Amino acid sequence: TGHRVKELRERLDGIVSEREKFHFEVRYEERASLTMIREATNSSEPEIFFGREDEKKKVMSFLLNSKDEIESVSVISVVGMGGLGKTTFSQSIFNDEQVKLHFGLKLWVSVSGGFVVEKILKDVSDQLESLKSKLKGKIENRKYLLVLDDVWDSEDGQDGEKWDSLKQSLPREDRGNKMIVTTRSDAIAKLTSRVPLELKGLTDEDSWSLFSNKAFGPGQESNYIDRNIKKEILERCCGVPLVIKAIGRLMSSKDRAQWLSFVKQELPYRLTPQMS
Question: Where would I find the NB-ARC domain in this sequence (predicted)?
């Protein structure tokens, strides 16, 4: 339990470390290591999805709009601070039945770094031959969807050139192919997409639904939680799914009678989002 609390504090501090960029006003009583711990993800095993219905409609409209096929590869970027669930959000779209029917092939690349063109192409392809040759054999005259998850800024300042090189290396015979890029970087989001989609914190209602799923079990929500306890938990979660899930899992193993004192003593943070 002590290890889990320490890890959770590190996650909270990771949110604190991004406060200026995302306009967070932060008051806290103690600080641990400024480390954001990223959860392991797999596009074939998506997390349960909460909230983001409006945002998902926007991305689905972009992907499925047959009138928007003037380019061979069109791109939408999803941007937001660490822990907001960009990967989970994109997984819910990647695995959507409408998307499965619309695209002949779907490819998911967990980048977790900058635009290393050769590495990305190698990850997409099982072999070292060109991505273009492989895709032509699989999806001749059919559209593909490519997700580049967790793209970072590079230190050499050549993101523009690398992005252009990557796009030129992708199959371009057919129009209507689509790409989703997830990133924490505003610069990457604007470089890759004309209209980036910004993810923000979940509403209190969606936050509590996600917390309940982790603390009480799927489809369960306790009606016996004191409103002060609920308020204290939501303040610490700040609408950030990564933190919500971590706190939910932690609280699931504790006696409900101890929840309030535990939250106040072990998680003494106050995060108030000031988002425009």
Answer: 53-216
Tokens linked to 197: 């989609």
* d(C-alpha 120, C-alpha 105), whole Å: 17
φ, ψ (nearest 5 deg) of residue 258: -100, 0
Query: Measuring CA to CA, which residue among 116, 106, 94 is closest to residue 45?
Result: 94
CB 131 within 8 A of CB 125: yes
Q: What is the identity of the amino acid at 22? A: F
Q: Taking a C-beta distance cutoff of 8 angstroms, is the pair 88, 192 a contact?
A: no
* pTM of structure: 0.75
Q: What is residue 83's three-state secondary structure?
A: coil
- Crossing angle of helices 241-252 and 2-17, in 10° steps, is 160
Distance CA 240, CA 204 (A): 10
Once rounded to an integer, what is the mean pLDDT over residues 200-221? 84
Instruction: Evaluate whether 107 touches 124 at the Cβ level (below 8 Å).
Output: yes
The region of weakest confidence among 84-88, 102-106, 186-190 is: 102-106
Q: Give the count of beta carbons closer than 10 Å to the beta carbon of residue 96.
A: 17
Mean pLDDT of all residues in 156-167: 88
Q: Provide the strand spans (E) within 164-243.
A: 177-183, 197-198
CA-CA distance, 65 to 143, in Å (whole number)? 12
Q: Is 40 helix (H, G, I), strand (E, B) or coil?
A: coil
Please return the burial class of 56, using the count of CB atoms within 10 Å of its CB with bins 0-12, 13-18 and 19+. Answer: middle
* Structure tokens belonging to residue 65: 């709009």
Per-residue pLDDT of 168-192, as tens digits, reads: 887 766 778 899 999 999 999 999 9
* Cα angle for residues 12, 14, 20 (degrees, 5° grid): 110
Contact 206, 85 (CB under 8 A): no
